[in-house]
Amino acid sequence: MYSKAVVKGAPSMQSPYARNSALSYQPTDPLRSHRSIADGTTGPIAFGPFIVDLGFARVFRDGQEIPLRPQVFRVLQFLIQNSGRLVDFDEILAEAWGGARVSKHTVAVTLRELKDMLGEYGSWITIRPGYGYSLEIPESEHLMRVGQHFRSQFSRSGLDSALRCFEQVTEIEGANVRAWESLAGLHMEIGFLSVRPPREVNKSFLHAYHRVGVLKGGVTAGLQLDRAVSLYRFEWKLTEAESELRRILQQNPKLIRAQVHLAVVFYLMGRAEEALEELGKVERADPLLPALAYVKPRLLLYCREADAAAACASQAVALHPNSPLTHITYADVLDLTGDPAALAEYHVASTIAPDIPWIKAHEARCLARQGRSGEAMEMLSQLQVKRQHEYVDAYPLAFLLEALGERDDAFHELERAYTERSPMMFWLDRDTKSDALRNDPRFAVLRDRVASAVA
Fold first, then answer.
1. What is the pTM for the complete model shown?
2. Top-level CATH class of 23-137?
3. CATH architecture for residues 292-354
4. What is the average pLDDT across 233-252?
5. Any idea which fold 355-455 has?
6. pLDDT digits over 313-343, tens only?
Protein backbone atom coordinates (compact mmCIF):
# COMPACT_ATOMS: atom_id res chain seq x y z
CA MET A 1 0.00 0.00 0.00
CA TYR A 2 2.84 2.35 0.74
CA SER A 3 5.46 3.56 -1.72
CA LYS A 4 9.10 2.71 -1.19
CA ALA A 5 10.26 5.83 -3.02
CA VAL A 6 13.14 7.63 -1.37
CA VAL A 7 12.95 11.35 -0.73
CA LYS A 8 15.55 13.18 -2.75
CA GLY A 9 18.40 13.94 -0.43
CA ALA A 10 16.90 11.82 2.36
CA PRO A 11 19.13 9.87 4.75
CA SER A 12 20.57 6.54 3.68
CA MET A 13 18.63 3.49 4.84
CA GLN A 14 21.81 1.50 5.53
CA SER A 15 21.63 1.99 9.26
CA PRO A 16 18.79 3.03 11.57
CA TYR A 17 21.28 5.27 13.34
CA ALA A 18 22.90 6.84 10.28
CA ARG A 19 24.05 10.41 10.78
CA ASN A 20 24.05 11.47 7.13
CA SER A 21 20.79 13.41 7.34
CA ALA A 22 18.43 15.08 4.89
CA LEU A 23 18.32 17.92 7.37
CA SER A 24 21.58 19.13 5.85
CA TYR A 25 19.57 21.70 3.91
CA GLN A 26 18.49 23.27 7.22
CA PRO A 27 21.60 25.17 8.32
CA THR A 28 20.24 25.89 11.79
CA ASP A 29 19.26 22.32 12.65
CA PRO A 30 20.33 22.06 16.33
CA LEU A 31 20.42 18.28 16.42
CA ARG A 32 22.99 18.08 13.66
CA SER A 33 25.31 20.84 14.74
CA HIS A 34 26.24 21.28 18.38
CA ARG A 35 28.30 24.26 17.22
CA SER A 36 25.17 26.15 16.15
CA ILE A 37 23.67 25.76 19.63
CA ALA A 38 26.90 26.53 21.41
CA ASP A 39 27.19 29.67 19.34
CA GLY A 40 23.95 31.14 20.62
CA THR A 41 20.82 29.10 19.86
CA THR A 42 18.67 29.27 22.99
CA GLY A 43 15.11 28.79 21.75
CA PRO A 44 12.91 25.69 21.58
CA ILE A 45 14.17 22.74 19.54
CA ALA A 46 12.49 19.49 18.51
CA PHE A 47 13.90 16.35 20.08
CA GLY A 48 11.88 13.32 19.04
CA PRO A 49 8.37 13.86 20.44
CA PHE A 50 9.76 16.45 22.89
CA ILE A 51 10.21 20.19 22.69
CA VAL A 52 13.26 21.33 24.61
CA ASP A 53 13.37 25.04 25.41
CA LEU A 54 17.03 25.79 26.01
CA GLY A 55 16.39 29.41 26.94
CA PHE A 56 13.95 28.64 29.76
CA ALA A 57 15.21 25.17 30.70
CA ARG A 58 11.84 23.48 30.10
CA VAL A 59 10.85 20.23 28.40
CA PHE A 60 7.44 19.48 26.89
CA ARG A 61 5.85 16.36 25.47
CA ASP A 62 2.54 16.58 23.63
CA GLY A 63 2.09 20.08 24.99
CA GLN A 64 2.53 19.03 28.61
CA GLU A 65 5.54 20.24 30.58
CA ILE A 66 7.68 17.55 32.18
CA PRO A 67 9.17 18.49 35.59
CA LEU A 68 12.94 18.14 35.50
CA ARG A 69 15.67 18.88 38.01
CA PRO A 70 18.07 21.61 36.82
CA GLN A 71 21.01 19.22 36.78
CA VAL A 72 19.10 16.67 34.70
CA PHE A 73 18.20 19.40 32.22
CA ARG A 74 21.85 20.49 31.96
CA VAL A 75 22.86 16.90 31.11
CA LEU A 76 20.08 16.70 28.49
CA GLN A 77 21.17 20.00 26.96
CA PHE A 78 24.80 18.88 26.82
CA LEU A 79 23.90 15.58 25.15
CA ILE A 80 21.67 17.30 22.59
CA GLN A 81 24.46 19.74 21.78
CA ASN A 82 26.78 16.80 21.23
CA SER A 83 24.38 14.30 19.72
CA GLY A 84 25.95 11.62 17.58
CA ARG A 85 29.34 11.53 19.31
CA LEU A 86 30.82 9.85 22.38
CA VAL A 87 31.68 12.19 25.27
CA ASP A 88 33.89 11.03 28.13
CA PHE A 89 33.43 11.44 31.88
CA ASP A 90 35.71 14.48 32.22
CA GLU A 91 33.94 16.30 29.39
CA ILE A 92 30.47 15.79 30.82
CA LEU A 93 31.72 17.00 34.22
CA ALA A 94 33.24 20.11 32.66
CA GLU A 95 30.17 21.03 30.63
CA ALA A 96 27.15 19.70 32.55
CA TRP A 97 28.51 20.07 36.11
CA GLY A 98 30.55 23.20 35.50
CA GLY A 99 33.78 21.40 36.36
CA ALA A 100 32.61 20.28 39.80
CA ARG A 101 34.02 16.94 40.90
CA VAL A 102 31.26 14.42 41.42
CA SER A 103 31.38 10.64 41.42
CA LYS A 104 30.63 8.43 38.48
CA HIS A 105 27.75 7.08 40.53
CA THR A 106 26.21 10.58 40.68
CA VAL A 107 26.53 10.93 36.91
CA ALA A 108 25.01 7.50 36.39
CA VAL A 109 22.06 8.30 38.69
CA THR A 110 21.43 11.58 36.83
CA LEU A 111 21.54 9.83 33.47
CA ARG A 112 19.15 7.15 34.76
CA GLU A 113 16.74 9.89 35.84
CA LEU A 114 17.01 11.45 32.38
CA LYS A 115 16.40 8.12 30.62
CA ASP A 116 13.35 7.50 32.81
CA MET A 117 11.99 10.92 31.88
CA LEU A 118 12.40 10.11 28.18
CA GLY A 119 10.40 6.91 28.67
CA GLU A 120 10.49 4.71 25.57
CA TYR A 121 13.04 7.11 24.06
CA GLY A 122 15.51 6.61 26.90
CA SER A 123 17.33 4.01 24.80
CA TRP A 124 18.64 6.85 22.65
CA ILE A 125 21.10 7.56 25.48
CA THR A 126 23.83 4.95 25.70
CA ILE A 127 26.41 4.48 28.44
CA ARG A 128 29.61 2.67 27.50
CA PRO A 129 31.53 1.87 30.70
CA GLY A 130 35.10 3.04 30.46
CA TYR A 131 34.42 5.05 27.30
CA GLY A 132 31.68 7.59 27.89
CA TYR A 133 28.14 8.62 27.02
CA SER A 134 26.28 9.42 23.82
CA LEU A 135 22.92 10.46 22.45
CA GLU A 136 22.12 8.62 19.20
CA ILE A 137 18.99 9.81 17.41
CA PRO A 138 17.60 7.10 15.09
CA GLU A 139 17.33 7.62 11.37
CA SER A 140 13.54 7.51 11.73
CA GLU A 141 13.61 10.67 13.84
CA HIS A 142 15.44 12.60 11.14
CA LEU A 143 12.85 11.40 8.64
CA MET A 144 10.06 12.51 10.99
CA ARG A 145 11.56 15.99 11.22
CA VAL A 146 12.06 16.24 7.46
CA GLY A 147 8.48 15.05 6.98
CA GLN A 148 7.12 17.69 9.34
CA HIS A 149 9.13 20.33 7.50
CA PHE A 150 7.63 19.33 4.15
CA ARG A 151 4.17 19.01 5.66
CA SER A 152 4.20 22.67 6.71
CA GLN A 153 4.75 23.93 3.15
CA PHE A 154 1.07 23.85 2.09
CA SER A 155 1.89 22.52 -1.37
CA ARG A 156 1.24 19.33 -3.28
CA SER A 157 4.95 18.60 -3.61
CA GLY A 158 5.45 19.24 0.10
CA LEU A 159 2.64 16.87 1.04
CA ASP A 160 3.97 14.18 -1.29
CA SER A 161 7.48 14.52 0.16
CA ALA A 162 6.12 14.38 3.71
CA LEU A 163 4.14 11.28 2.80
CA ARG A 164 7.27 9.51 1.58
CA CYS A 165 9.16 10.46 4.74
CA PHE A 166 6.50 9.09 7.10
CA GLU A 167 6.08 5.96 4.99
CA GLN A 168 9.82 5.31 5.21
CA VAL A 169 9.62 5.57 8.99
CA THR A 170 6.90 2.90 9.08
CA GLU A 171 9.14 0.70 6.91
CA ILE A 172 12.04 1.14 9.32
CA GLU A 173 9.91 0.90 12.47
CA GLY A 174 6.55 -0.68 11.75
CA ALA A 175 5.35 0.03 15.29
CA ASN A 176 6.26 3.74 15.32
CA VAL A 177 2.98 5.22 16.56
CA ARG A 178 3.99 8.80 15.88
CA ALA A 179 4.67 7.99 12.23
CA TRP A 180 1.26 6.35 11.83
CA GLU A 181 -0.42 9.29 13.59
CA SER A 182 1.40 11.67 11.26
CA LEU A 183 0.33 9.62 8.25
CA ALA A 184 -3.31 9.69 9.34
CA GLY A 185 -3.28 13.47 9.82
CA LEU A 186 -1.40 13.98 6.58
CA HIS A 187 -3.95 12.00 4.58
CA MET A 188 -6.67 14.25 5.97
CA GLU A 189 -4.73 17.32 4.81
CA ILE A 190 -4.21 15.78 1.38
CA GLY A 191 -7.93 15.13 1.16
CA PHE A 192 -8.77 18.62 2.38
CA LEU A 193 -6.65 20.12 -0.40
CA SER A 194 -8.16 17.71 -2.96
CA VAL A 195 -4.82 16.70 -4.42
CA ARG A 196 -5.53 12.95 -4.47
CA PRO A 197 -8.69 10.94 -5.26
CA PRO A 198 -11.05 11.13 -2.25
CA ARG A 199 -11.70 7.40 -1.99
CA GLU A 200 -7.97 6.65 -2.10
CA VAL A 201 -7.30 9.27 0.56
CA ASN A 202 -9.99 7.94 2.87
CA LYS A 203 -8.78 4.37 2.48
CA SER A 204 -5.22 5.42 3.37
CA PHE A 205 -6.43 7.51 6.30
CA LEU A 206 -8.49 4.66 7.74
CA HIS A 207 -5.56 2.26 7.41
CA ALA A 208 -3.28 4.57 9.40
CA TYR A 209 -6.06 5.41 11.88
CA HIS A 210 -6.76 1.76 12.68
CA ARG A 211 -3.04 1.00 12.83
CA VAL A 212 -2.65 3.63 15.56
CA GLY A 213 -5.57 2.14 17.45
CA VAL A 214 -3.99 -1.32 17.37
CA LEU A 215 -0.53 -0.12 18.40
CA LYS A 216 -1.74 2.27 21.07
CA GLY A 217 -4.91 0.61 22.26
CA GLY A 218 -6.82 3.76 21.33
CA VAL A 219 -6.42 7.06 19.48
CA THR A 220 -5.96 10.65 20.55
CA ALA A 221 -8.78 13.19 20.58
CA GLY A 222 -7.19 14.81 17.54
CA LEU A 223 -7.36 11.59 15.54
CA GLN A 224 -10.92 11.00 16.73
CA LEU A 225 -11.71 14.42 15.30
CA ASP A 226 -10.06 13.48 12.01
CA ARG A 227 -12.25 10.38 11.87
CA ALA A 228 -15.36 12.44 12.46
CA VAL A 229 -14.32 14.80 9.68
CA SER A 230 -13.71 11.89 7.32
CA LEU A 231 -17.27 10.75 7.94
CA TYR A 232 -18.75 13.84 6.33
CA ARG A 233 -15.92 14.89 4.01
CA PHE A 234 -15.27 11.54 2.34
CA GLU A 235 -18.19 9.30 3.27
CA TRP A 236 -20.96 11.93 3.22
CA LYS A 237 -22.41 10.65 6.50
CA LEU A 238 -23.62 13.86 8.09
CA THR A 239 -25.78 12.38 10.86
CA GLU A 240 -23.02 10.04 11.99
CA ALA A 241 -20.47 12.86 11.82
CA GLU A 242 -22.67 15.12 13.97
CA SER A 243 -23.05 12.41 16.59
CA GLU A 244 -19.32 11.78 16.69
CA LEU A 245 -18.44 15.49 16.89
CA ARG A 246 -20.85 15.98 19.78
CA ARG A 247 -19.29 13.04 21.60
CA ILE A 248 -15.79 14.42 21.07
CA LEU A 249 -16.80 17.85 22.36
CA GLN A 250 -18.48 16.34 25.39
CA GLN A 251 -15.24 14.58 26.30
CA ASN A 252 -12.92 17.40 25.13
CA PRO A 253 -14.80 20.71 25.43
CA LYS A 254 -11.62 22.72 24.75
CA LEU A 255 -11.11 21.11 21.35
CA ILE A 256 -12.72 24.03 19.57
CA ARG A 257 -11.64 22.85 16.11
CA ALA A 258 -14.37 20.26 16.55
CA GLN A 259 -16.90 23.08 16.92
CA VAL A 260 -15.87 24.49 13.55
CA HIS A 261 -16.52 21.13 11.91
CA LEU A 262 -19.79 20.78 13.78
CA ALA A 263 -20.83 24.14 12.35
CA VAL A 264 -20.01 22.90 8.84
CA VAL A 265 -22.10 19.77 9.40
CA PHE A 266 -24.99 21.88 10.72
CA TYR A 267 -24.86 24.02 7.60
CA LEU A 268 -24.73 21.04 5.25
CA MET A 269 -27.79 19.66 7.03
CA GLY A 270 -29.68 22.88 6.32
CA ARG A 271 -29.31 24.31 9.84
CA ALA A 272 -27.58 27.57 8.93
CA GLU A 273 -28.66 29.44 12.05
CA GLU A 274 -27.19 26.76 14.33
CA ALA A 275 -24.01 26.74 12.23
CA LEU A 276 -23.42 30.47 12.63
CA GLU A 277 -24.27 30.27 16.32
CA GLU A 278 -21.64 27.55 16.75
CA LEU A 279 -19.06 29.67 14.93
CA GLY A 280 -19.92 32.55 17.25
CA LYS A 281 -18.92 30.37 20.21
CA VAL A 282 -15.65 29.54 18.48
CA GLU A 283 -14.93 33.18 17.79
CA ARG A 284 -15.44 34.10 21.41
CA ALA A 285 -13.10 31.31 22.51
CA ASP A 286 -10.36 31.87 19.92
CA PRO A 287 -10.88 34.63 17.34
CA LEU A 288 -7.53 33.81 15.70
CA LEU A 289 -8.27 30.14 15.00
CA PRO A 290 -7.12 29.56 11.37
CA ALA A 291 -10.08 27.33 10.45
CA LEU A 292 -12.49 30.04 11.56
CA ALA A 293 -10.86 32.47 9.11
CA TYR A 294 -12.10 30.65 6.04
CA VAL A 295 -15.14 28.74 7.32
CA LYS A 296 -17.10 31.67 8.74
CA PRO A 297 -16.92 33.99 5.71
CA ARG A 298 -17.70 31.09 3.40
CA LEU A 299 -20.82 30.13 5.31
CA LEU A 300 -21.89 33.76 5.35
CA LEU A 301 -21.31 33.89 1.60
CA TYR A 302 -23.37 30.76 1.01
CA CYS A 303 -26.10 32.27 3.19
CA ARG A 304 -26.03 35.17 0.67
CA GLU A 305 -25.02 37.64 3.38
CA ALA A 306 -22.58 39.36 1.03
CA ASP A 307 -21.72 42.42 3.14
CA ALA A 308 -21.09 40.40 6.29
CA ALA A 309 -19.10 37.84 4.29
CA ALA A 310 -16.96 40.57 2.70
CA ALA A 311 -16.15 42.19 6.04
CA CYS A 312 -15.34 38.84 7.61
CA ALA A 313 -13.23 37.65 4.67
CA SER A 314 -11.30 40.92 4.50
CA GLN A 315 -10.45 40.65 8.20
CA ALA A 316 -9.42 37.01 7.70
CA VAL A 317 -6.95 38.01 4.97
CA ALA A 318 -5.50 40.66 7.26
CA LEU A 319 -5.10 38.17 10.11
CA HIS A 320 -3.87 35.26 7.96
CA PRO A 321 -2.20 36.78 4.88
CA ASN A 322 -0.14 33.66 4.12
CA SER A 323 -3.10 31.31 3.91
CA PRO A 324 -4.31 30.70 0.34
CA LEU A 325 -7.69 29.68 1.76
CA THR A 326 -8.40 33.14 3.18
CA HIS A 327 -7.56 34.73 -0.19
CA ILE A 328 -9.71 32.20 -2.07
CA THR A 329 -12.66 32.88 0.21
CA TYR A 330 -12.29 36.65 -0.07
CA ALA A 331 -11.99 36.28 -3.85
CA ASP A 332 -15.21 34.26 -3.98
CA VAL A 333 -17.03 36.99 -2.07
CA LEU A 334 -15.69 39.71 -4.38
CA ASP A 335 -16.47 37.60 -7.43
CA LEU A 336 -20.11 37.25 -6.41
CA THR A 337 -20.51 41.03 -6.46
CA GLY A 338 -18.57 41.44 -9.71
CA ASP A 339 -15.68 43.25 -8.06
CA PRO A 340 -12.64 43.03 -10.41
CA ALA A 341 -10.37 42.88 -7.33
CA ALA A 342 -11.39 39.22 -7.05
CA LEU A 343 -8.80 38.29 -9.68
CA ALA A 344 -5.94 39.71 -7.61
CA GLU A 345 -7.03 37.64 -4.60
CA TYR A 346 -7.26 34.46 -6.68
CA HIS A 347 -3.81 35.18 -8.06
CA VAL A 348 -2.34 35.64 -4.58
CA ALA A 349 -3.79 32.29 -3.51
CA SER A 350 -2.41 30.66 -6.65
CA THR A 351 1.01 32.18 -6.00
CA ILE A 352 1.09 30.93 -2.40
CA ALA A 353 0.07 27.40 -3.47
CA PRO A 354 1.10 27.12 -7.13
CA ASP A 355 0.79 23.35 -7.45
CA ILE A 356 -2.75 22.88 -6.12
CA PRO A 357 -4.83 22.55 -9.31
CA TRP A 358 -8.25 23.65 -8.07
CA ILE A 359 -6.87 27.03 -7.02
CA LYS A 360 -5.64 27.55 -10.59
CA ALA A 361 -9.10 26.60 -11.82
CA HIS A 362 -10.66 29.33 -9.68
CA GLU A 363 -8.25 31.92 -11.04
CA ALA A 364 -8.92 30.82 -14.62
CA ARG A 365 -12.68 31.05 -14.08
CA CYS A 366 -12.31 34.60 -12.83
CA LEU A 367 -10.21 35.48 -15.89
CA ALA A 368 -12.97 34.14 -18.13
CA ARG A 369 -15.62 36.11 -16.26
CA GLN A 370 -13.57 39.27 -16.73
CA GLY A 371 -13.36 38.77 -20.49
CA ARG A 372 -9.88 37.27 -20.64
CA SER A 373 -10.98 33.97 -22.16
CA GLY A 374 -7.72 33.35 -24.00
CA GLU A 375 -5.74 33.26 -20.76
CA ALA A 376 -8.45 31.15 -19.11
CA MET A 377 -8.35 28.65 -21.98
CA GLU A 378 -4.58 28.39 -21.66
CA MET A 379 -4.86 27.60 -17.94
CA LEU A 380 -7.61 25.07 -18.66
CA SER A 381 -5.34 23.35 -21.18
CA GLN A 382 -2.57 23.16 -18.59
CA LEU A 383 -4.95 21.62 -16.06
CA GLN A 384 -6.14 19.06 -18.61
CA VAL A 385 -2.55 18.06 -19.34
CA LYS A 386 -1.87 17.81 -15.61
CA ARG A 387 -4.89 15.54 -15.22
CA GLN A 388 -3.21 12.95 -17.43
CA HIS A 389 -0.71 12.09 -14.70
CA GLU A 390 -2.20 13.37 -11.43
CA TYR A 391 -5.57 13.90 -9.78
CA VAL A 392 -7.39 17.13 -10.59
CA ASP A 393 -10.71 17.69 -8.85
CA ALA A 394 -13.47 17.89 -11.45
CA TYR A 395 -15.72 20.18 -9.39
CA PRO A 396 -13.87 23.51 -9.93
CA LEU A 397 -13.20 22.59 -13.57
CA ALA A 398 -16.97 22.46 -14.11
CA PHE A 399 -17.39 26.13 -13.18
CA LEU A 400 -14.38 27.14 -15.27
CA LEU A 401 -15.96 25.43 -18.28
CA GLU A 402 -19.30 27.11 -17.57
CA ALA A 403 -17.58 30.51 -17.53
CA LEU A 404 -16.06 29.67 -20.92
CA GLY A 405 -19.51 28.87 -22.32
CA GLU A 406 -19.03 25.10 -22.35
CA ARG A 407 -22.12 24.12 -20.39
CA ASP A 408 -22.35 20.50 -21.58
CA ASP A 409 -18.71 19.92 -20.59
CA ALA A 410 -19.41 21.65 -17.28
CA PHE A 411 -22.13 19.15 -16.43
CA HIS A 412 -19.91 16.31 -17.57
CA GLU A 413 -17.32 17.46 -15.01
CA LEU A 414 -19.95 17.72 -12.27
CA GLU A 415 -21.01 14.14 -13.04
CA ARG A 416 -17.39 13.12 -12.76
CA ALA A 417 -17.05 14.97 -9.46
CA TYR A 418 -20.10 13.12 -8.16
CA THR A 419 -18.73 9.76 -9.28
CA GLU A 420 -15.36 10.48 -7.68
CA ARG A 421 -17.07 11.71 -4.51
CA SER A 422 -15.32 15.07 -4.55
CA PRO A 423 -15.58 16.62 -1.04
CA MET A 424 -16.56 19.86 -2.79
CA MET A 425 -19.59 18.24 -4.38
CA PHE A 426 -21.82 18.32 -1.32
CA TRP A 427 -21.65 22.13 -1.45
CA LEU A 428 -23.26 22.11 -4.91
CA ASP A 429 -26.68 23.44 -3.96
CA ARG A 430 -25.21 26.15 -1.72
CA ASP A 431 -22.22 27.25 -3.76
CA THR A 432 -22.66 30.73 -5.26
CA LYS A 433 -20.82 29.53 -8.38
CA SER A 434 -23.77 27.19 -9.03
CA ASP A 435 -26.10 30.12 -9.63
CA ALA A 436 -25.27 30.23 -13.35
CA LEU A 437 -26.35 26.59 -13.73
CA ARG A 438 -29.51 26.51 -11.67
CA ASN A 439 -31.84 27.21 -14.60
CA ASP A 440 -30.67 24.05 -16.37
CA PRO A 441 -32.88 20.97 -15.69
CA ARG A 442 -29.73 18.86 -15.33
CA PHE A 443 -28.75 20.84 -12.25
CA ALA A 444 -31.89 19.86 -10.30
CA VAL A 445 -31.37 16.21 -11.17
CA LEU A 446 -27.76 16.26 -10.02
CA ARG A 447 -28.59 18.26 -6.91
CA ASP A 448 -31.22 15.70 -5.88
CA ARG A 449 -28.76 12.84 -6.45
CA VAL A 450 -26.26 14.51 -4.16
CA ALA A 451 -28.94 15.15 -1.53
CA SER A 452 -30.04 11.50 -1.58
CA ALA A 453 -26.42 10.31 -1.28
CA VAL A 454 -25.68 12.44 1.79
CA ALA A 455 -26.88 10.58 4.87
1. 0.79
2. mainly alpha
3. Alpha Horseshoe (1.25)
4. 96
5. 1.25.40
6. 999 999 999 999 999 999 999 999 899 999 9
